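WARN no homologs supplied; continuing
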Amino acid sequence: MLISIVSKIKREPSNCSIFATYYTAVTKRYFIMRESLLGLLLIAWFSIFGQYNTTVYIDPDYTGTETGTITQPFNSWSDFNFSSNTAYLQKRGTIAQGGMVVTSKNYLLIGAYGSGNDPVITGIPGQETSIISFFKSNHCVVENLTITGHHPSAPTAGVYITGNWIGNITSSDITVKNCDISYCYNGVRVLPGTSDVDKVTVENCEIHHINEDGIFAIDLNNFTCRNSHIYFVNLDWHYHGHTVADAPGDGIQLGNDCDNFLIEGCIIDRRYTGLKFCFIHNGNNMGFENDGIIRDCAFYPPKDTIGGPSAGGAIYLYDGDSILIERTKIIGTDRIYSNDAGVGGQLSFDHIIMNYVLGDSVHNFKVGLFNEFCELNNVTFTSNRPNVTMLDLSGGLTNITNSAFACGPNTAPTYGIITQSNNLVYIGDDSNWGSTFGWADWANGDYHLLETSPLIDAGSDVGQALDLDNLPVPFGIAPDIGCYEYSSSSGLAPIPDFNVLDTVINMGESVHFFDASLNNPTSWLWVFDEGNPAFSYDQNPTINYNSSGMHDVTLVAINSSGYNVKSKKNYIHVLQPALAPITDFSTMDTLVHPGDLVSFIDNSLNNPTMWIWLFEGGNPQMSNLQNPIISYDSSGVYNVMLIAKNAIGQDIEIKTSYIEVYESFSPPHANFAPSDSVLAIGETILFTDKSGNTPTSWNWFFEAGSPSVSNLENPQVTYNSMGEFNVILVVKNAFGNDIEIKSKYIRVYNPNLAPVANFSANKTYINPGDSVSFTDESLNVPTTWTWVFEGVTPNIVNTQNPTVKYTNPGNYNVMLIAANPGGTSSKIKTDVIHVSNSEENTFFPFYNQITVHELDTVMFTDPDKSSSYFGMWILEGGFPVSSVLKVPRVIYKNEGNYKLKLLLSDGDNLGILTKETSVIVLPKK
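OK structure emitted
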């Protein structure tokens, strides 16, 4: 009928204005009749098959006997064969693996039961098998499911529908509703086989994170996509580095002979992944006569739209018959003049009608090829790219009424044969757009009309009932120009309304709410179920959600005339997101002997599907098993690393010093050695741990060193101060610890400063055969020592602190020569060592331990006092038992340990000073 009308008008061009009205009315009746017939068929189907004969239940967490009943459900979709007239329901809050194929079945439902979040059906890891497939089946429904695959080995489709590849039996009447579909090559995929698929409906769905097309169909009759949100598609283009070869994805793609389609109430958002289209119907120039409707939608073109109309944009319709686009927004990326992506696209159907359409930021939008008739009523188009064609309307008969075109410099629409009335076209700088058209705020995308707008009541009746806001077009008054009708809100209380870009989010994400209330509210009160914050007085608040589930939103809009309340139940759907792994692992044995086997257990969260283990010192050193068994053949302390991966991402866990391999389970024995113990100021030395029994940790303390402490096994230390410094090492393992302290171990000298020699002896009065220990007390850190000892053989010693033995009585000199790179110094002490006369058996009791034998006669003297002092000896065990002689003679008759005291006098008082020691008497020789 439509073709014959167009042919008649071509023969009688003078009837264009009459035809425009008639064509609009006929087209509306045509589509309304088609929709009504489909609705009646749907009602009839539900009246006959509203209930399924059998219900089968699936609970993946169930572990008992499986019969498919609600009390004994199956725990896998692979546990049974599908049957017609049956509902298959998976328990909410559970996750199951898909990959099921429904073949030659009728009146079948795949859905959910119970409470909580919708059940999740996943793809098969590592395979591209579709999650749910229908093959030559009819009257089937998929509803209330979360259907998710895995990237990069994504399933071919979340829901795959195909006809019969042998014979003429096909699939028909397949519905997908209330589903969340993600991480597949196609969210919904329809292929014909040898016969076309008939009637597929997608409604109230979220389709996102898709590698190619959100919905892809070939040779599909009667397709409806209603109230659905499609976003984050064409990820191959995004992931693979922006090459045209990787850009096959659209929001919705209908190919070849897809007849009778309805896209209604949908948001298709392509702003974040580039190239291709929001919606494409590509007939491939095969002469098909396809019809379709796009109504009440919002399209956001791809971010990387480049080139001409067919390179990418909002809509691409090629080689069809009739298309009606009404009450639809097409929003580009930038309203200010720029070279960014605009709307773009191509409409190449024979008959095109656009009513109350907004095209914001348009360039390279072509309505021309194959076009016989194009009608634009109450559209608003703007251009954001100077010197580029904004809108190409060439090709056929074009009728434009009540439309507003804001064109940048040299961007005016291109027309063919045209009839136009009551339009406003402005060409020039955007600074005058607001005053020319009277838009509320065009720079921020608000094309509503101000009270002073010249577009008000300036149009003519085109037979439309609703504007872009779905508000009634005034009856009896001339309609306005553009896509919005002006409505004064003076004296009226607000009519609250609001919207968001994403009603389905992951837990932890935020939602930006946009106030869409009418009648100019002046204040707002928002209430957000489980939101953070839970209340807001902002006009357009941003709210964070940290609890999964369905959440209500309420808005109270207020002005001086009153207030009204708008609530949207279960409006925000917060998903428990698929997460990358959180890697962890354990083992029963971290302390083992060489040759022992160690079993490692993966404890990672969020279901990893791939594991990469690295075992330092292990055999093998690498494994891809989830729970490997590893041998350790050599003593040591070893790290273990695990990388866990799934489709979302990966995580790494490294446990240092985790496996300890010991020959014996004993504490360590601390020991160390430096690369040098004598060094100049500013030099650096290496300390090497030489501890036994395999320590696992080291704590070093370096007096005057830099650093002064270290946990390294073999640290390097610099000394910037002169002196002799201590070094301490504490070592530990699983069985204990040990400490090694080396005093004055590191000697640091100043190469420009010579020593000052000095020394001391531990005793200076000795008996023949006794030894004396000498201590170097030289200043400025000597590095070499030469001792010259009188009365000793050998009489020259080169150690720092020597011990020498004197055998002959006498008084002896000692000399020390100390040297370093800065010079040499010497010190001589005369008669410093006194060796008693053995013939007289005279002892110095207060300088040496006295040992004698029974019946020996011994003499004691105190050389520290002059001959004029007065004192008394107390000789316990001796004969006599006391004496006032300076050098008493004593005989000890019995073996034992006796006290020896010397009481000194200051001339008046005896005992003002007391010296005391002991005498050991051994048995007679």
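The chain has four helices and 79 strands.
OK
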